[in-house]
Amino acid sequence: MNGLRLPSQQQIYDTAPRWLQRLLVNAEAVRREWFRRHGDYQRLVADHDPAWYYRPRAEQEAWQLAQLNRLLAAARRRVPHYRRVLPDRPLASLAELPSLPMLNKEQIRRNPFDLVADDLDRRTLWPRKTSGSTGTPLTFYLDREATRHHQAPADAMLAALGCRFGEPRARFSGAYVAPYTRTKPPFWIWIDLYRQLQCSAYHLAPEFYPHYMRALRESGVVYGTGYPTAWHLLATYLLESGDQPPRLRAIITDSEGITLEQQAVVEQAFGCPMVQTYGTGEIGQMAWQCEHRRYHVLSRAAIAEVVGEDGLPVAPGETGQIVVTTFAGAGTPFIRYQTGDLATLAADDCPCGRHSPSWLAIEGRIDDRIKTADGRWIGRLSHVTKPGVGIKESQIAQVAPDRIVIRVVPAPDFVPESMQAVVEAARRYLGPTMHVEWEIVERLPRTRAGKLRHVVREIEL
Questions:
Q1: How far apart are CA 276 and CA 43, in angstroms?
Q2: Do 64 and 141 reside in the same domain of the chain?
């Protein structure tokens, strides 16, 4: 039996008949639901009544302070990292929050279990891996309480838009649906448990747009979610072709951002509102756009600071880093977590009437996109670096119409051989016409706002 290699899960999926593929994706959905929506989950959703955000700011902050002190006390008692760094006292006001140490990705990367409560069974944790907005691989763990608390506010906000979980929906994301080499539809699969048409964001070539649109119409989906760049590509096609869009109540996007001008194009083409959200895998969704395009912090789910380089709050109208403390439980807590993303703090109350803190814009989340030789636009490629070992930072650059360079700043434990898997992952999504290579660099350039873009296009197309 020496040398015998069993097929990977992806190889099994790729060669399986359609009915078995559907069974496999539903089995994965069951596993995820075991974490996300179990027990008295509907009561938790009800706790996130959207009317909360219209309450006076002082009332919201008083509730947050009480929640925060309960979280700090439990984290000090249960979690090794916080046992060492948190002061043994409650805070008198939220203004004292900057006195607590911030948590950065490098601390988690060094020892992810240092952020896990001593009394949790590690076998019940959900291991998560994300490259993050900086392209730096990060492994962390969430318990079932945290995943429930991440999902509940999102489901509550969906319901407020008339888009309840369990109604037919379409989702465009980086989830693997079909191998790149497939040149004929379908590039989507139905997940029965979610009543979700899971669509590949990596087969959106112009010749396939009509097929995607037909699938959306025939599936009977009533709202959309996922990558805004994917919805924008389809919206542009609709306006240029005159094709018939599906009848959607709303499109709610995540994982990346697009400009307000592009957002308006999506709304015009699909004839429904589009709402952009902000969140990360570590903290969940914790800010949603209102009708005035401001991002409102879900203050029932988290405290979000916008701080300068000194760790202190920026003045209204200024831009700083988003630092988040979630109320997702003390088993796997994130307290004053540096997201690496930037936001511009609003200087006045929002005309929508909500009194939770709001941001005028989220900076640094709108990555450049890569255009492949066959006409596909690809963005949000940060996940392709996940197989890399010892990558401190990375950037994917299109340096020619058919050439991609993955630039890597190595950490001390960098394993060059692991980059072969990174290159193969990039080729799987970008296709055989794109030449992919990698190189080591000492540093990666930042934008004027100090943000590292993970995907950049260095040529004019």
A1: 26
A2: yes
Could you count the other beta carbons within 10 Å of the beta carbon of residue 427? 17
Are 247 and 221 within one domain? yes
Q: Could you please report the per-residue DSSP string of 253-289?
A: E-SS---HHHHHHHHHHHTS-EEEEEEETTTEEEEEE
> Is residue 60 a contact partner of residue 313, using CB atoms and an 8 Å limit?
no
**Is 253 found in the same domain as 326?**
no
Predicted TM-score (pTM) of this structure: 0.83
- Between CA 301 and CA 149 the distance in angstroms is 8
pLDDT tens-digit series, residues 327-346? 999 999 999 999 988 899 99
Q: Are residues 283 and 149 in the same domain?
A: yes
The domain in which residue 291 lies consists of: 41-155+278-363
Rg (CA), the chain: 22
The two tokens of residue 370 are 């890569």
Helices (H), 40-143: 41-47, 57-78, 80-85, 105-110
> Is the bond preceding residue 87 a cis peptide, omega within 30 degrees?
no
Considering its fold, how many domains does the chain have in total? 3
Task: Return the biggest CA–CA distance within the chain.
Answer: 69
CA distance 427 to 182: 14
In a domain, 305, yes or no: yes
Does the pLDDT at position 444 exceed 90?
no
* Chain center to CA of 324: 15
Answer with the one of 363, 395, 429 that is the final residue of a domain. 363
| Alpha carbons 101 and 325: distance in angstroms, whole number | 12
Per the rule left: phi > 0, alpha: psi between -120 and 50, beta: everything else, 79 is: beta
In this structure, what CATH number is given to the domain that contains residue 128? 3.40.50.12780
Q: Residues 118, 174: one domain?
A: no
Per-residue pLDDT tens for 263-272? 999 999 999 9
Neighbours of 432 (CB within 10 A): 11
The answer to whether 188 and 202 have CB atoms below 8 angstroms apart is no
C-alpha dist (Å) from residue 335 to 101, 368, 403: 9, 31, 41
* Cα(379)–Cα(259) distance, integer angstroms: 14
Long-range contacts made by residues 179-183, C-beta under 8 angstroms, separation at least 24? 179/14, 179/428, 180/427, 180/428, 180/429, 180/430, 180/431, 180/432, 181/432
Gap between the Cα atoms of 11 and 205, Å rounded: 24
